[in-house]
Design goal:
450 residues; alpha+beta; Adenine-n6-DNA-methyltransferase TaqI, Chain A, domain 2; elongated
Length: 450
């Protein structure tokens, strides 16, 4: 699609050239910006039980905004009476329908944003943009790569944030009123087409994952020979298993010299040193059956000794006690350095004469165990399972040679599905990149749609 006939430089590298007749204005001149209000523990408890009614307003936090779709969970369960006052005795900040919300603090800063179709109250980590120009055009600019580049340059503090005052100084290219409307309408249509393609790929991924999990679950609970005699496992959620298999509590498989079934270490944010040489893993590094590389946490040798930490070895299993899916497990790869892990991960080093580690990893991620672990987990706001409860979970134990046959089968079968899932996820990533690129080109005038 062609561009405009004449361009000028915007004066800002992250915007680049813009059409000659466009203007550049500071955000504070095209929108009213302000924070929301945070709730204390008493208010969280008080407002969590309000039902939807004309007398209450949804309360939106960063977690209620989907980063990819920009959708908002208005039915999150937290609602505030319209006439309620905040802790300072003032009415709660309200974001009107048609305004935009942007996360400005923490890990989602600059990445989570939405445009509202109703009035809401909102947390102080979100900034409200009440537009004085076309609201959809403003929202699309906030979604653009240009805005993100500007935002990244202004991140400050340990948790990473940008103040509302600073946001007000951000430049934004402004076309005519009619062009704003045309651009917003064009992006509504084109972005929906892309979102529909993404949704189709996501459904495909979900179906592939469901089939993969079914194959895995059947293999680790029933084996590969459907004709063998079965017997009750004495655990309702396990049902019948091959008669020649054994069942024992998970922790008993680690009762041997050199084995362990222990929590990680109590390492706090103040203990993290990015110049350290011992890699620190959290529950975020534990995927269901795979290790996830994320985070740059390290501790020093001195801190390791001070906290009397435990070395995690390559080949150990980490079992997450926190966040769903509860009890998800991965095998730790060789990361090229010493490793420690958070207290919410269990370090599991089974007896190799009893349990094959790869079989254990597959078993811990089977659908029935995951469902059972999530049911018995505790916690009002955050589900967590204790190490003791984990240790009492039953694990089936085929003979070792049969465990290895099942592992070889699942490596092949699950590997095929993993490849297909990876390709679909790659397609999703490409579509998301294209969507952002399209938005950026249109809202900065590189692509003419008027």
């Amino acid at each position: 699609m062609a561009g405009y006939s004449k361009y000028k430089h915007s004066g800002f590298s992250w915007i680049g050239d813009i059409p000659e007749h466009w203007e550049v204005k500071r955000t504070k001149y095209v929108a009213k910006l302000y924070n929301g209000d945070s709730l204390n523990d008493e208010q969280k408890n008080a407002y969590s039980d309000f039902s939807e009614s004309d007398e209450t307003i949804p309360y939106i936090a960063s977690k209620d905004i989907d980063k990819d779709s920009c959708s908002v969970d208005y039915m999150n369960g937290t609602r505030i009476p319209k006439k309620e006052k905040n802790t300072n005795g003032r009415p709660f900040s309200k974001a009107p329908a048609g305004s935009s919300l942007l996360c400005i603090e923490g890990g989602s800063a600059g990445k989570k944003r939405c445009i509202l179709d109703r009035e809401v109250n909102f947390v102080n980590k979100l900034c409200c943009f009440v537009p004085k120009i076309n609201g959809k055009f403003l929202f699309y600019y906030i979604c653009s790569n240009s805005y993100w580049e500007n935002f990244k340059q202004n991140l400050q503090g340990m948790i990473g944030g940008v103040t509302v005052t600073k946001l007000g100084t951000f430049p934004i290219p402004i076309p005519s009123d009619n062009e704003q409307i045309t651009i917003a309408n064009y992006l509504d249509v084109e972005c929906k087409k892309i979102d529909d393609l993404i949704a189709n790929e996501e459904k495909r991924v979900s179906l592939l994952q469901e089939i993969r999990l079914s194959i895995l679950t059947k293999a680790v609970l029933q084996g590969l020979n459907g004709g063998v005699e079965t017997a009750p496992s004495k655990h309702s959620w396990l049902e019948n298993i091959p008669k020649h298999w054994k069942v024992m509590p998970l922790r008993y498989t680690a009762n041997a010299k050199g084995c362990c079934f222990i929590d990680g270490d109590w390492i706090e944010s103040k203990d993290i040193d990015y110049d350290g040489n011992i890699k620190y893993l959290t529950t975020g590094n534990v995927g269901p059956g795979f290790y996830k590389e994320q985070g740059l946490g390290y501790i020093t040798e001195e801190k390791f000794k001070e906290l009397d930490c435990i070395d995690v070895l390559p080949g150990d299993l980490l079992i997450s006690r926190l966040n769903e899916p509860i009890a998800r497990t991965c095998i730790v790869p060789d990361l090229g350095s010493r490793i420690v892990t958070a207290v919410d991960n269990v370090i599991f080093r089974p007896n190799p004469n009893v349990l094959d580690r790869k079989f254990a990893c597959y078993y811990m991620n089977n659908g029935r165990l995951t469902e059972h672990a999530n049911i018995i987990a505790r916690g009002a706001t955050m589900h967590r399972i204790s190490r003791t409860m984990l240790g009492h979970l039953p694990i089936v134990l085929p003979p070792l040679d049969e465990q290895r046959e099942i592992v070889a089968f699942l490596d092949k079968e699950c590997g095929q599905y993993d490849d297909r899932i990876a390709k679909a996820n790659h397609q999703i990533d490409l579509l998301k990149e294209y969507k952002l690129s399209l938005i950026t080109e249109v809202v900065t005038g590189k692509r003419k749609v008027c």
